[in-house]
Design goal:
By secondary structure, the protein is an alpha/beta fold. Helix content is about 25%, strand content about 20%. The protein is built from ten helices and 18 strands. The protein has helices spanning about 45-50, 60-65, 80-85, 110, 125-140, 145-150, 175-185, 240-245, 265-270, 315-330; strands spanning about 10, 25, 30-35, 55, 70-75, 95, 115-120, 165-170, 190-195, 200, 205-210, 225, 250-255, 275-280, 300, 335, 340, 345. Strand 6 (about 95), helix 4 (about 110) and strand 7 form a beta-alpha-beta unit. It starts with 7 loop residues before the first strand and ends with a strand. Mean pLDDT is about 90; it is low at about 1-5 and about 10-20. InterPro entries: D-isomer_2_OHA_DH_cat_dom, D-isomer_DH_NAD-bd, NAD(P)-bd_dom_sf.
Length: about 350
């Protein structure tokens, strides 16, 4: 029987080979499968240096590749392939997802298993925080309005808003939410947090409130920033009641998951003028279909799920996985271990 490293946990491109005919590497006995679609991860040579065998598989090939595999890199992080091929995972001990969110990966059999799941927490924190700050400034300074007027060659003076002294509530108090909080506080906004429980004296948020009471908390909020992971508790968390509780001058910024916002309620709030605007990077259906009402609102900023994808993001994803692969081979604690029942990495 092939010797495998013990697994412990910690919170803290070129042509592919055919599935099941993996390339031999360092000879340490670890069999790694990489699920990909078109692109392969950078630093491919290092994968072969660290793992005993590396197999590459697209969705249709994953079942064959998983037989005898110890580890799976979900480079195609949104693929449903693992659920379909789960019965072939006869030796799987560890899955790494090349993304921060794991809601599209987790299913009942995986949750019930002993397989460890890690994610790419930390890669997207700063880029997403910069995106949120950019949206705040774009709304306050009416940059979309200036671009529209420029396209019409119209010179129309307007008075813009200041952002200092405005209040932002960040829904989701994990690593990305904390980076957003630090950046927005640095430019003068008052920052509050909404998470799983109420607490005072938080280093980044000051006060954190129970997100299940969100509608009762947002009356004085100027910007509601959603970065919550998708769980049973957060699905459509931002619903008609929350949107109605916001003041008409408020804006919503969603960089979490599309399913955490009730899209129909959002469309109605924008159409009726009960919400001043929204910046949306994620949607319940992606790509956002042509003809969807959200495309037509001038007060809505739409981007195609790219808020965290700054230059070098794929290299950063690969580096995060390689660090964990080194740890796995050495039997050292893995980083970014996901609580499979909560659906995210729990901060220490």
């Amino acid at each position: 029987m092939r010797a495998r490293p013990s697994v412990t946990t910690s919170t803290g491109p070129g042509p592919s080979s055919a599935a099941g005919t993996g390339e031999r590497g360092a000879g340490n006995g670890v069999v790694l499968t990489v699920l990909h679609e078109d692109d392969l991860p950078p630093s491919r040579d290092l994968l072969h240096d660290l793992a005993g065998e590396v197999r590459y598989a697209r969705r249709a090939e994953l079942g064959d590749a998983l037989r005898g595999s110890d580890a799976l890199l979900m480079w195609d992080s949104f693929s449903p392939a693992l659920r379909e091929a789960w019965h072939h995972a006869d030796a799987l001990r560890w899955i790494h997802v090349a993304a921060a969110g794991v809601d599209r990966l987790l299913f009942d059999d995986l949750r019930a298993s002993d397989v460890i799941v890690t994610n790419s927490r930390g890669v997207f924190d700063r880029p997403i925080a910069e995106y949120v700050l950019a949206c705040v400034l774009a709304f306050a300074k009416d940059l979309p309005g200036s671009w529209r007027l420029q396209g019409e060659q119209r010179w129309r003076h307007r008075v813009t808003e200041r952002i200092d002294g405005k209040t932002v509530m960040i829904v989701g108090t994990g690593a990305i939410g904390r980076e957003i909080a630090r950046m927005l506080r640095a430019v003068g906004l008052t920052v509050l947090g909404a998470g799983r429980s109420t607490r005072d004296g938080d280093a980044d948020f000051g006060a954190v409130y129970d997100s299940s009471r969100l509608a009762a908390l947002v009356a004085d909020v100027d910007y509601l920033v959603n970065v919550a992971p998708l769980t049973g508790e957060t699905r459509r968390l931002i619903d008609a009641d929350v949107l109605a509780a916001l003041k008409p001058a408020a804006r919503l910024i969603n960089v979490g998951r599309g399913e955490t916002v009730d899209t129909e309620a959002l469309v109605e709030a924008l159409r009726s003028g009960r919400l001043a605007g929204a910046a949306l990077d994620v949607f319940e259906e992606e790509p956002l279909p042509a003809g969807h009402p959200l495309w037509s609102f001038p007060q809505v900023l739409i981007s195609p799920h790219m808020s965290g994808d700054a230059a070098g993001w794929q290299e950063a994803l690969a580096d995060t996985f390689l660090e964990n692969l080194r740890r796995y081979v050495a039997g050292a604690p893995l980083i970014n271990v996901v609580d499979k029942h909560l659906g995210f990495v729990v901060s220490p």
